[in-house]
Amino acid sequence: MARYEVVIVGGGVIGLSIGYALARSGVSCVILDRTELGREASWAGAGMLPPQSEPRPGPIHPSVELRSWSARLYPEWSAALLDETGIDNGYRRTGGVDVAWTEAEEQALRTTAGRWRVEGIAFERLAAGDFGRVEPALNPELRLVYFLPDRAQVRNPRHLRALAVAFTGRGGVIRANCAVEGFIARGDRVVEVRTEAGAFQADQVIVAAGAWSGRLLDALGVHAPTPPLKGQLVLLRGDRPLLRRIVEHGKTYLVPRDDDRILVGATEEDAGFDVLPTADAFRALTEAAVRLCPELKEARVEATWTGLRPGSFDTRPYIGLVPGYRNVVVASGHKRAGLQLSPATAELAVDLVLGRPPRIDLAHFRIDREPSTGDDVFRS
Ligand SMILES: Cc1cc2nc3c(=O)[nH]c(=O)nc-3n(C[C@H](O)[C@H](O)[C@H](O)COP(=O)(O)OP(=O)(O)OC[C@H]3O[C@@H](n4cnc5c(N)ncnc54)[C@H](O)[C@@H]3O)c2cc1C
Q: What residue stretch is flagged as signal peptide (predicted)?
């Protein structure tokens, strides 16, 4: 039976990032995925990354800490991945604009800007008539526009490929088409991971199976739902670069790539594990896009697709030891923010595997926490 120090269940951005971080620490790991790696939410996502914040004196909310730490790690990881693999993951600090059409949206955006100020995130409010200085293609009739110069993006498929190549380059093993079916536990330790392709022995196990994690945790007798939240996207292509910045209007966004493509997202639907695109979502997304940037009406539609964001029982991911087990870690439920939070999540998983004190207080992210009713601070 194959034996590894760590068996990681799930090869999305979370599992791959953990594998890469562990491989950098010299830990022998295998990543098991029930299909090809990185073909689910992590492939589908838009790859928007929040701006870095300047650390301020005084206590920081652990969710803000997780987000800003990840934002700081992204340029560092991207450079290391390029160096190790030759793959450019498309990390770019393109900047972004957040916009409002109505008075109510203006109020909400001003409140968000207050939070940016407290967190030390750079932003500038653009005066009417001055939008074109930052983003010439924006509809000049918008009511309010904020410019965030440090908003960034990554190309998900390239990032996933770079992580996989770097992981295997450091001796990590990838087993695709190897669905985990259950676990064998002895006392408070899982000793074997059972798959359709045989069993794996492990000193430690990490559950990072996205929206499917809840089912695996159920198999361990632990209730921690990871409900899928369906998201649909449309990929447009112009015949010249139309936008420079990421444009965000509430939950709608335009993400310009450096090859004349613009990703328009995204819906949030409670539709179980259904992944079929719908006509209704397509119409709503393209209409919203053309209203934000009228020149897009000539753009060609290149593709549409969907992905299933892994939810949790509140707005935060689960990161930490699984209750009742000394050697099982969960890293899942990152919902809309799994790409942005992946490097810091991976570093925390390394702390847990190596038995070091986690660099962020994990009380906030444990499965057995009190559910949060607070704001979703993982948006910007
Ligand atoms: C439309 C859309 C837009 C998004 N935009 C952004 C964004 O701009 N920025 C951002 O930060 N986040 C974004 N997200 C969210 C982000 O994509 C997710 O939070 C993230 O990809 C979750 O990663 P994951 O590794 O947990 O899950 P996944 O990528 O779903 O990976 C889970 C893996 O586990 C495997 N698996 C499942 N069950 C088993 C099993 N039994 N055995 C073995 N393997 C198994 C699956 O095959 C899969 O490969 C977006 C998501 C969507 C859908």
A: none
